[in-house]
């Protein structure tokens, strides 16, 4: 999953990026209001964490502009906590609203829920026949027995699982799994897919030649 | 309860006033009427007395006893014995001329309707106080008036329900004409009664009218006080409806409305400040918590821990600066700051601050020029240093590289003055009126720096103004900015 964090407090931004990356997300960052909308509209993020108080274009305006083009789930972060601000945020198109200072674990859980919901899933567990993914613990089991995947492998599997039934192009996988701070080579994708197949069975991920990958429903 | 209500007091005073006026009027009317009645009666009595008097005079040529042909009247039996009707000079103590017989001429008698018991009657006494003649309708007993002196020679008296006028003529005969004024008295009483009723009616009407008027007049007052209660109880945005702005009540309502506007603005400012302060504090808190939580998610290298701690410490210091500033502002707002005041020299304090910030200025490649003339001021040294430091640090922060800062102190027209000038980017005219506001940051495009709380100028302003001074800023975009602080003129000791 690729996430955009827009926050003007530099330390917080760095910190959030670090925490999210350690969770296995690919993270892009933007400090100011001009950078944020540009990036948000340019890429298809899986979620955006947006601070309300931004210099230049403020959070509301960024959200407004974004909603004209995209349906990316947005979690708003703010130090403003009056009900009016919350209402405004949710009405303007935010999918969730978190008050600073927040607990990191809460932020992560809400992000997971956002992503899950936008992919149509309701629970934190995804069942793919014999394979069960727990998106909370990032744990995968095959017929009940736990399987170890690397962070990247898990990310790919999760993305495909959340878009079950859809053909996900390689480009899309790149976009959603690697962020601007990565300088990966495309081959890596194939290597990861191979590794997943080895661990979980070859039938799980289907290759559609010329199109992409798919986990069939 | 009654004494507090304007309406009841008004009614009371109105009733009192009306009562006085009506009583006065009624009393006067009654008196006038009565006097008039009596005068009329008296005139009639006088006429008759005069007529009888004339008649007697004419019928009494000295020594003669005239007889008139047609005379009516009751002969009274002479008392005692007949005596000569001539003046007898004798030494007898009481010489009473015999009561003479009198016959009154008809015209005179016509003045008396002897058939009417309430009509005029007459009585004539001899000088010996013996009744000579009387009219038939005279009351049974009429006491003879007393002759006292020439003052009572001719006079009027009221005897119960009879009004009588009497006259002692030259031979000391007493002529009395009277009339029962029972009817008149009854009439007067009726008149008085009518006056009373009319007066009561007018009083009632007046009070009723007064009540209605006060209702009309007090209704807007009640409306205003109800609206004011509503507004001050909750909704400060509401205003009193002022229909007639020029009346006294209209002016009152206008004053109240403007007070409410000021209150609303003040509350809004307070709310805004609280919201801003809370926001400013929450952000560094978020950083610390986030930093700590992230670092703790998994085991890390000591270097990472160190970095994390340093970041937390940094941010905590920033919060400390912020809370210090906020506390200072809060105390200034509450007006409670007992500080130690001394005679200090602005120049000296400025010099100290420049020395302290010299290195920072050098780091920003800025030159600092001082023109510090002695400027004594009676203030708190720490606070003044705070102001100077704030102005200097702003000058450093918002300056161009290789720019300069000029700081000057002197006395102008008795006022100690401090001037700090920089060659920085300047402040836009739109922002200039706002820079002393709390948390106002003119340079919004600049990402928030952890050094700047946005409260520095607000605090400086609070400090300066608490001492009765002024602080002003002037600026030219792209050229520079100048801050002028003027302190209160020192009182001569």
What is the overall silhouette of chain A? elongated
Helix count of chain B equals: 8
Number of discrete helical segments of chain A: 8
Helix content of chain A: 40-55%
Strand order, main sheet of chain B: write it out: 2-1-5-4-3
What is the H/E string of chain A? Answer: EHEHEHEHEHEEEEHEHHEE
Uncertain runs of chain A: none
Give the assembly state of these chains. Answer: heterodimer
End-to-end Cα distance of chain A: 20 Å
Largest sheet of chain A: 5 strands, parallel
Q: What radius of gyration of chain B results from the CA coordinates? A: 56 Å
The helix-and-strand class of chain B reads alpha+beta
The fraction of residues assigned to DSSP E strands of chain B is 15-25%
Radius of gyration of chain A: 18 Å
Question: Strand fraction band of chain A?
Answer: 15-25%
User: How many strands of chain B?
Assistant: 12
Order of helices and strands of chain B: HHEEEEEHHHEHEEHEEHEE
Label the structural class of chain A. alpha/beta
Distance between the termini of chain B: 57 Å
Mean pLDDT of chain B: 81
- How many distinct beta strands of chain A? 12
